[in-house]
Amino acid sequence: MKILVTGFDPFGGASVNPAYEAVKLLPDSIKGTEIIKQEIPTVFKKEGEVLEAGIEEHKPDIVICVGQAGGRSCMSVEKVAINLMEARIPDNEGQQPFDEPIHSDGETGYFASLPVKAMVQKMREHGIPAKVSYTAGTFVCNDIMYRLLYMIDKKYHDVRGGFIHVPYLPEQVTELPDGTPSMSAEMIAQALEYGVEAVLENTEDISAVMGETH
User: Which one of 48, 99, 133, 147 has the largest count of C-beta atoms within 10 Å of its C-beta?
Assistant: First the structure.
């Protein structure tokens, strides 16, 4: 099996993004499953193109995208992505769409095809704060989750996918208001690893997926 894990590059004037910093710390194999790591741009639509290129190249069985949710205090495993682009700030190429659909022929929303609750439970069992989230926002994080699930619905039917939001890194909050939550890259990476383990332990028909060739 192969699992493709993506993380965004820095955005909004930041010099670092906890998503890809944590993804880089993941081992190359988890429970015998190959882990492929990919950085994607914080740019509407382009991130989907880069992700699809990665899917075409690596032929993963599972895709987990990871992004920053500054202000959240724990790992947030997203349940649903919505067909809406509405940016509070510009992306890394200056785009700032408002009230626009991601795909005109897509569903209003798509649910993650990963065992979201099991992933959260696994993280919590190891002392890492985590929750199921029912809003991925309307910025590039929701955009990539929606584009991933749209691709799965339309083209990559055997792939399973989902998205995880992560908090700021400690170094990102030094100049932010007192009480702004953060989590170390090492803890985020450990949580992601537990999430992958839960996927491997709980995904239905996993033996059938393992027997497939692409």
Answer: 147
